[in-house]
Amino acid sequence: MAYQMNGSTVEHDEEGYITDLGAWNKELADLIAADENIEMTDEHWEVVNFLREYYEEYQIAPAVRVLIKAIKKTMGKDKGNNKYLYTLFPYGPAKQACKIAGLPKPTGCV
Amino acid sequence: MVELNIRQPAGPEEFPDPSEIPPLAHGAMADSKPYPASAEHQKAIGFPGELVDDWKERAIDKLGELVSKSRGLRVYLDTCVKCGACTDKCHYFLGTADPNNMPVARQDLLRKVYRRYFTFAGKYFPWLVGAADLTEEVLDEWFSYFHQCSQCRRCSVYCPYGIDTAEISMAAREIMDTVGKGQKYCNEIIGKVHKYGNNLGLQEKAHRATLADLEEDIEDETGVAVRLPLDEKGADILLVTPSADFFAEPHIDGLIGYAKVFHHVGASWTISSYASEAANFGLFIGSQENMRELALRIRKAAEDLGVNRIVFGECGHAWRAAYNFLDTLAGPFDFLDQRYPIPQHICEYTYDLIQKGALNLDKARNDHIRLTFHDSCNIARASRMGDWEGGQFDIPRAILRASCNHFYDMPADTIREATFCCGGGGGLLTDELMDLRKKGAQPRMRALQQVAGEHGVTHMAAICAICKTQFAKVMPEFGFEMDAIVSVHQMVSNAIILDGQIEDDEDGPTMTASGNGADGGEE
User: Fold this and answer.
1) C-beta atoms of B247 and A106 within 8 A
2) Cβ-proximal residues to B152 (8 Å cutoff; 6+ apart), any chain
3) What is the mean pLDDT of residues A36-44?
4) Known catalytic residue: A109?
5) Is B244 close to A95, i.e. CB distance below 8 A?
6) Does any CB of chain A come closer than 8 Å to the CB of residue B241?
7) Domain check: are A59 and A92 in the same one?
8) Are residues A46 and A28 in the same domain?
9) Residue of B nearest to A90 (CA)
10) Per-residue confidence (pLDDT) for residue B510, from 0 to 100
C-alpha cells in the first residue's frame, strides 16, 4: 500500500495514513486529498498547516475545539465552526484532515 | 419570507418500528470484518504477531482453558435450548438481516467448536449435536461475526437462561488474539494506553495545553475562572474520564460540565496525566491481563496523587469495568475515603448535589433543546448507579430533568434495560466497519425518529464516549444533525449558573450571585 508520486512511493496503512511521517510534502497532500475527492483550497491549507504546526509541538492532533478556535482567529467566525470544517473535510476535520496533513489517525472513542 | 423549521407531529404509522424483523439475508455481512492488528500492535500487548503455525491446537487449548476457568462461559455454551427468544433482539440482526447476527447463531459459531472438542456427544457424534471442527473457514467466520457483536447484552435480557453473548464474544476474541489474529482498532489502542496512559496517545504537554485552553474558554464565556487541574497532588478527587473528553465533540462539553460542577461546590479535584483514560479496551478483547494493567494505572495515579476519592466521567464500558472489576483487578482501595462509593460515577456525584440543592440550575437555558436520553448499554445492563435497582436509569434522567424543561423518553421497549446499543460499542467504533455501524444504529435511530415526530425532540443525551462519537457520525444518515447528540454534563453545563457568572443578555453583561456556591458544599 503506497502513494505513487513523481516516480517515488510513499507507504501508507490500510486507511491511507502515511506510515513515515517524514515523507510528507505538499504534493503528497494534494495527492492524498485527490484520493479523498477533496480539492485543496486556501481554507483547506489553513487547517492542514495548523494541524501540522500543532502536531510538531505536541505530537498529537489538536482537539476539534482547539482547531475551531484557531480557525476562528484566522478565518473569522463564519468559518470557525464545526459545520464549516465538515464542509471542507466531509469525513471529519480530525481524521480526514490529519490524513491529508500526513499525521497519524487519532485513535480511541473519537 | 421566514420559514419555520418545525417538525410536524405525525401519526404513529409514519414511524418504522425500531424492532421490526427484517426478511433474512443469508451471508449479507459475511464480508464485514475489521482490519487485522499488525505484528507490532499484537506484540505490544503480549500476543503473537501473526497467525501461529499451530493455531488450531492453541485455539482449542485456549478454549479449554477458558471454559475451565470460567464456569459462566461453560454454562453459556452448554445451556442454550434454541428457544429463539434472542433471535430478534440484536440491533445488528435487525439492521443487517444476516441470520448469523442472531445472538444464538453468533454463540453457535463458538459453541459448535466447543461441542466438538469438549463434550462427549460432540466428540463421537458431531453430526447429531451441531458440533464442527475448527477450520480456517470457522476462524474467519469468527473474525467476521465476533466483530459484529458490540457486547451490549441486550439479548441476554431476553434469554430465559441469561446466556450472555458478550462473554462468548469476548472469549472468541481472546482466543483469536492468542493465536495471532487480533483486531487493529482495539489492540492498537490498548498499546497506546500502556505507553501514554490513554487511547488517544495524548501526552502530558498536549494534555496540559488542552485543559488550559478549556479554562480560557470557560472564563471567556462565563467570566468565572473554572479550573481543570492536572496532576495536582493532595487533591480530594481523582477524575478518571475517557480521553475522548479531551478531544472530541460533544465529549469535551461534558468535561466542561464536570469542571463547572466541581468548581461550584468548591471541590478539590484533579485529572491524572498518567491514568488519563477511563476506557478499558481490555474488556472488549476479553483480556484480563490487559484489563488489569489498565486498572493498575488508575490505582497508581490515585496513590501517587494522594486522593481520597475516584470519580469516573461519562464512559459506558469504563463504568462497567470500574463498577464490577476495579476492586478485583487493582484493589483493595483501603487508602480511599470509605464513606463514598469506590469508584463513584460523575452522575452519582452531580445527582447528590442536585438532591441537596447545591447546584444552581436554570432549566430555561436549555429551552432551545427538546431532549431524550439514550441509555448506554454497558451502564444499563452491566452496572448500576446509586443504591437502588434501576439507579443507572433514574439518575441520569433526574440530572437531565433538573437541567432542562423538555424531556421525553423514547419507546419503552428501546430504553432502560431494553436499550438498543448505539451500534459502535464493544470495539467496533472504527471506520472500516462504518456500514455495520450505520445498520446497527438503525433501531436506536428509529426510536429517536419516533420521539422526534411525536414530541418534537431535537437532541439526545448520552453518557458514553463511544455512543457520542458513533451518533455524531451516523445521525446525519437518519435525518439528524451531527450535534443532535449531547453529553449529559453538557446539559448541566448549559444550565448551571456559577457564582459571579456574567450574564450576557440584552441589557448587557450582569453579574450573578446564586448564593449556592462553594459554601454550599456537597456534604
Assistant:
1) yes
2) B91, B166, B377, B378, B381, B421, B425, B426
3) 96
4) yes
5) no
6) no
7) yes
8) no
9) B473
10) 58
Query: Quick one: three-class SS letters along B294-339?
Result: HHHHHHHHHHHHCCCEEEECCCHHHHHHHHHHHHHHHCCCCCCCCC
**How many residues are present in chain A?**
110
In one-letter notation, the amino acid at residue B254 is: G
For A108, which of B184, B199, B210 is closest by C-beta distance?
B199
**What pLDDT band is residue B228 in, cutting at 50, 70 and 90?**
very high
A26 with A49, same domain? no
Domains observed in chain B: 48-181 (1.10.1060), 190-511 (no CATH)
Answer yes or no: do B200 and A108 touch at CB < 8 A.
yes
What mean pLDDT is predicted for residues B363-378?
Answer: 98
Q: A57 and A72 in one domain?
A: yes
Instruction: List the single residue in A with minimal CA-CA distance to B205.
Output: A58
Q: Are A24 and A67 contained in the same domain?
A: no
Q: Amino acid identity of B486?
A: V
Contacts made by residues A2-11, CB under 8 angstroms, sequence distance 24+ = A3/A28, A3/A31, A3/A32, A3/A35, A5/A31
Q: Is residue A110 part of a domain?
A: no
Whether residues A65 and B429 touch (CB distance < 8 A) is answered with no
Contact yes or no for B351/B521 (Cβ under 8 A): no
Contacts of A27 (CB under 8 A, 6+ apart): A5, A6
pLDDT tens-digit map of A60-94 = 999 999 999 999 999 999 998 988 999 999 999 88
What total number of domains does chain A contain?
2
B201 touches chain A (CB under 8 A): yes
Q: Given A14, A22, A41, A109, which residue is catalytic?
A: A109
Chain B residue whose CA is closest to A93? B248
Q: Do B206 and A69 touch (CB under 8 A)?
A: no
Question: Is A59 found in the same domain as A96?
Answer: yes
Instruction: Give the Cβ contact number of residue B116 at 10 Å.
Output: 20
Contact B247 A15 (CB under 8 A): no
Strand residues in B223-308 grouped as ranges (E) = 237-240, 269-271
Q: By the 8 A CB rule, do A87 and A96 touch?
A: no
pLDDT, position B239: 98
Across the interface, of B201, B252, B473, the residue whose CB is closest to A60 is: B201
Q: What is the pLDDT of residue B503?
A: 79
Q: Are residues A51 and A92 in the same domain?
A: yes
B258/B346 Cα distance (integer angstroms) = 7
| Partner-chain residue, chosen from B199, B210, B214, that has the shortest CB–CB distance to A109 | B199
Distances in Å between the alpha carbon of B396 and those of A106, B25, B350, B392?
A: 29, 38, 9, 7
- Domain residues for the domain of A18 are 2-35
Q: Quick one: A22 and A50 in the same domain?
A: no
Burial B159-169 (b: 16+ CB within 10 A, else e): beeebbbbbbb
- A108 occurs within a structural domain: no
Query: What are B158's three cell numbers?
Result: 431476553
Q: Is A82 in the B-facing interface, judged by CB distances under 8 Å?
A: yes
Query: In this complex, which of A94, A106, A109 lies closest to B279 when CB atoms are compared?
Result: A109
Say what the pLDDT of residue B518 is: 38
- Report chain B's mean pLDDT, rounded to a whole number: 94
